[in-house]
Amino acid sequence: MHIGIGLPNQVRDVHAPVIPAWARLAEEAGFSTLGTTGRIAYPGVMDTVALAAAAGATSRIGLLSQVLLATTWPGALLAKEAASIDAVSAGRLTLGIGVGIREDDFVVPGHGPRDRGARMDRDLETYRSLWAGAPVPGSENPAVPAGTRQVPLLFGATTPAAFRRMAETSDGYVAGSVPAAMASGLFDAARGAWQAAGRPGRPRLVGLNYVSLGDPDRGRANVADYYAATGQYQDIVVGNVHTSAESVRDAVKQFEDLGVDELILSPGTDDLDEVTRLADIVL
């Protein structure tokens, strides 16, 4: 199982210049992937901007949005943003997407929370079409340079419709930041949907957990703040923030036992020393 690390782009009032430095240090340490968490109605750095900054600061490490709120974007605009980041990074981006749950993140007129599942289905067609070189709707020009690849897609999902969409249209599944025991059922649902869709092989499976090693209390507080107004989910995520080497190693072992391809450990603070602390434990 590969071990990735999240960027601190959605730590409240993040010191934004830390993001490229964090990315460089994570690559030097040997982490497999840099992940981002995405919201709009929150005082952090936009996930696409964080990924672009990380792409420019590194040359080998993978990049993953975990997950970007795709339905808050016009489909053609997100398709171009993702393809551009992927191109700048020389093909290192995996676009992890979901439909979103918080109403205040839907700020674009005509792209509200209603009917977002159906909009996602339409947008997926737009992504694939534009990445293949089709013209932008209403224009004779394509959105992307010739030779642009189909950016790999992963889905965050919890409903049957979302698991179906994941299995039919993407490369795999990203579970939420929950304990391995809870994620196990989600991964089983992803595998089952994959088989039901008649897909060969198996989906790529990615787990997420939070860590806060240098300042556990501040890290938990930051995670609680980010997940405010999500009800019981907030308690689950905050209760699963790993604050010791023993807890981190135990989580890694549990996810590895589930047959997960990659576990990404996201930070609760923007303390750059967290990269080294975590690398010393898991790499």
Describe the secondary-structure layout.
Elements: E1 2-6, H1 18-29, E2 33-36, H2 47-57, E3 62-65, E4 68-69, H3 75-88, E5 93-98, H4 116-131, E6 153-156, H5 160-169, E7 172-174, H6 180-196, E8 204-211, H7 216-226, H8 232-239, H9 245-257, E9 262-267, H10 273-282
Keywords: Flavoprotein, FMN, Monooxygenase, Oxidoreductase
Protein name: LLM class flavin-dependent oxidoreductase
Domain Luciferase-like: 19-241
3D structure, described in words:
Residues 19-241 form the Luciferase-like domain. Keywords: Flavoprotein, FMN, Monooxygenase, Oxidoreductase. This is LLM class flavin-dependent oxidoreductase. There is one protein chain. Helix 5 (160-169) links the parallel strand 6 and strand 7 (172-174). It is globular and about 55 Å long. An 8-stranded parallel β-barrel has the order 1-2-3-5-6-7-8-9, surrounded by 8 helices. Helix 1 (18-29) packs across helix 2 and helix 7 runs antiparallel to helix 8 (232-239). The protein has 283 residues and is α/β, with parallel strands linked by helices. The chain has one domain (2-71, 83-99, 151-282): Luciferase-like domain (TIM Barrel), CATH 3.20.20.30. The chain has 10 helices and 9 strands. The mean pLDDT is 96. Helix content is 43%, strand content 15%. The protein has helices at 18-29, 47-57, 75-88, 116-131, 160-169, 180-196, 216-226, 232-239, 245-257, 273-282, and strands spanning 2-6, 33-36, 62-65, 68-69, 93-98, 153-156, 172-174, 204-211, 262-267.
